[in-house]
Amino acid sequence: MVSANREMVVFCFDTLVAHYNSEEAPPPAFDGGQHPLFVTWKKALNGSEPRLRGCIGTLEARCLINGFKDYALTSALRDRRFPPIQAKELPYLECTVSILTDYETALHYLDWEVGKHGIIIEFTDPDYNTRRSATYLPEVGQI
């Protein structure tokens, strides 16, 4: 089983820095593979608690190398909840990568543990008759 590691985070930072320098990121120091993944950016200033700055990923299996490259930029620049991350913010950023594995259906709505399990919530919006979903990674809600 593959797990997220430091080299994947370094590659996401390298990808974002390369974007601002209009160059290519150096090749990653990890192997490919196909998995759902997320990239999360947080920003801390003056010793404050890091605050979410962008988090986007995919539930579809993607090649890890291309997936982290794409989602490092997408989560930094195109998360609609936040303005795009600017180059001057780079020194204050933290990055977390998540690789999703071992899906199982919960039998009860409390059948998961914050900090250990992620959760995907799917429902139909009755007002618009459209399907909606939300994904919460294991670290959401941790202190």
Compact overview of the structure:
Pfam families: AMMECR1. The chain has 2 helices and 5 strands; from the N terminus they run H-E-E-H-E-E-E. It has 143 residues and is α+β, with helices and mostly antiparallel strands.
Protein traits:
143 residues; AMMECR1_N; AMMECR1; Glycoprotein, Type 4 Pilin; AMMECR1_dom_sf; 5 strands; AMMECR1 domain-containing protein; two-stranded antiparallel sheet; 3-stranded antiparallel β-sheet
Question: Structurally, how many domains make up the residues?
Answer: 2
**CATH class division of the largest domain:** Alpha Beta
Give the low-pLDDT segments. none
Instruction: Tell me the strand percentage band.
Output: 25-35%
Q: Numbering strands along the chain, what is their spatial order in the largest sheet?
A: 2-1-3
Main sheet record: 3 strands, antiparallel
- Indicate the CATH topology of the largest domain: Glycoprotein, Type 4 Pilin
Overall strand count: 5
| Superfamily (CATH H level) name of the largest domain | Hypothetical protein ph0010, domain 1
- Rounded to an integer in angstroms, the radius of gyration calculated over CA atoms is 16 Å
Order of helices and strands: HEEHEEE
Shape summary? globular
Number of helices: 2
Class from helix and strand fractions: alpha+beta
Identify the CATH architecture of the largest domain: 2-Layer Sandwich
